[in-house]
Each structure stands twice: as structure tokens, then as C-alpha cells.
Write a structure and sequence with these properties.
10 helices, two-stranded antiparallel ribbon, 5 strands, mainly alpha
Length: 263
């Protein structure tokens, strides 16, 4: 896929995922119409980062994490799998949207299930990492626009150094997470990349909420949906805190640090 084809696909996916209203949109049908299963099988290195990043940026959702894990396990696409969640819980993302949702993000149709058989998680963690990255960038874009537009004490909010530092810190965290996602080449790399993306999304939620002030808490503003989404996605397939601990335990067992990137 060349650059022009990628740009056309990006615009088609963005249009499919962008809801007509402020509410979250289920993009499953649109993705299927655009050939998501074929893209995943033929070009997973292109399809997964692109689709999941756009899910984050647009605020849409779809049960396509199931497909990524099924494909990695060599199973037919179209089914569902029990998914490990933070704190030792297990959830399922049903295809028909019949889940009860969560208190944090009612739009995601997740439901608790019994523990399932282990499956390779690296591909799913990378996919969620790209989703978290897109969500973080959406929060940063909202905060940036707010501080550029809002005037306080006769000055744009963007001129206040404290806010500039917080948004700069958010930007650096997101760029670092993207670099980790792009460099991940094995299970350990995927684990660390997902942890980095989860931390970056939480950093974005914290700093962007402070930049937006009270309006960021209101139902009328879009920030709260991205914050809720980031908190739920961080818990899927292991939270940033749990994955960091898992990486540390692995280092203690092995007695050495693996080479993650060739410089």
C-alpha cells in the first residue's frame, strides 16, 4: 500500500467512524464494509495501527480486538474471546452489542465472564496501545483548541506557562508511546508499549482536564468520553501498572534486560 492509497483509506475509515452526533458510534458495520477482515489478514502491520488509532481519535468503538487476537492465535475471525482485565477479572466484547457496559464507559458493550484459555496477547496489546494513543491525541487536540480560544485576564490561556508545560508534557508522553508501539517486535516489546500507551493516555486525561477546567467535566464537552474510554482500555489485557510489574518480575527472573530496539 503506497502513501496515496493509505491516505485514501485513512479518510474512508475516518468518515466511517465519525459519528453524526456527539454520542459514541459503533463502527463495526462500516469497518466490515471497508474490508477490515481482509485488511487484517493481508496487511496487519498497516491495518491495526491505522484502524485502532482512528477509533481513539474519533471516539468510535467496534469489537475488532476480538479479530486481532483470533488472527494471532490462528483461529477464524468473527468470534469472541474472553479477555483478561485488570485486577484478575475477565470480560467479553460481544459482537451484537449485548454487553452491559461498564460504570466508567457505558458505551463499550463489555460483560464479565469466566476465565478463558490463554491466547497470545502481544498483538492485542499493540492494538490497544494504538487505540490509547489515538484517544490521548484526541484529548490533547481538545485541550489545545480550548487554550487557544479561551481568554482569561485579557490573555489567551495558551500564553500561561503552567498550561503550556502540562500540554507539552502530554505531547512528549504520547510521542514516546508512539515510538514504543512502532518499535515493538516481540511479546516484551508489546507489553512495554501497551504500558507506555496506557500511562500516556492517563497523563493526557489528567493534564487536559486541568487545562479545560470545569467544562471538561460536563456532558456537553467531549473530553469526558475520551477520559472514560482511556481508563477502560488501559485495563484490558493488563493495565499499565500491572504490565510494568510483570516486566519487572521478568527482568528479575531472567537476570538481564532484553534488547528491545537496535539503534
Amino acid at each position: 500500500m503506497d502513501a496515496a492509497e493509505r491516505e485514501l483509506l485513512t479518510e474512508a475509515l475516518r468518515k466511517t467512524m465519525t459519528p453524526d452526533t456527539d454520542a459514541d458510534a459503533d463502527a463495526a458495520t462500516g469497518l466490515a464494509d471497508l474490508g477490515w477482515p481482509q485488511m487484517l489478514v493481508e496487511e496487519p502491520g498497516t491495518a491495526v495501527p491505522l484502524v485502532f488509532r482512528l477509533l481513539g481519535e474519533t471516539g468510535a468503538h467496534a469489537p475488532v480486538l476480538n479479530d486481532v487476537l483470533l488472527h494471532a492465535a490462528g483461529r477464524p475471525l468473527g468470534g469472541t474471546l474472553p479477555l483478561p482485565y485488570a485486577g484478575g477479572a475477565w470480560v467479553e466484547w460481544p459482537r451484537d452489542g449485548s454487553g452491559d457496559g461498564t460504570a466508567l464507559d457505558p458505551a463499550l458493550p463489555l460483560r464479565r465472564v469466566d476465565p478463558g484459555d490463554p491466547v497470545p496477547l502481544a498483538a492485542g496489546r499493540l492494538a490497544l496501545g494504538w487505540w490509547l494513543l489515538g484517544t490521548g491525541r484526541a484529548m490533547l487536540a481538545l485541550a489545545r483548541q480550548h487554550v487557544l480560544d479561551r481568554v482569561q485576564f485579557g490573555r489567551p490561556l495558551a500564553s500561561f506557562q503552567a498550561l503550556r508545560h502540562r500540554l507539552a508534557e502530554t505531547y512528549v508522553a504520547l510521542e514516546g508511546a508512539e515510538a514504543a508501539l512502532a518499535a515493538a517486535a516481540d511479546d516484551t516489546g508489546a507489553l512495554l508499549a501497551k504500558a507506555a500507551a496506557g500511562r500516556a493516555a492517563r497523563t493526557a486525561a489528567r493534564h487536559c482536564q486541568q487545562a479545560l477546567g470545569g467544562i471538561g467535566f460536563t456532558a456537553e464537552h467531549g473530553l469526558h468520553r475520551h477520559v472514560r474510554r482511556a481508563l477502560v482500555l488501559d485495563g484490558l489485557l493488563g493495565s499499565a501498572r500491572e504490565l510494568t510489574r510483570e516486566a519487572g518480575a521478568s527482568l528479575l527472573r531472567e537476570g538481564r534486560a532484553p534488547r528491545l530496539v537496535d539503534l
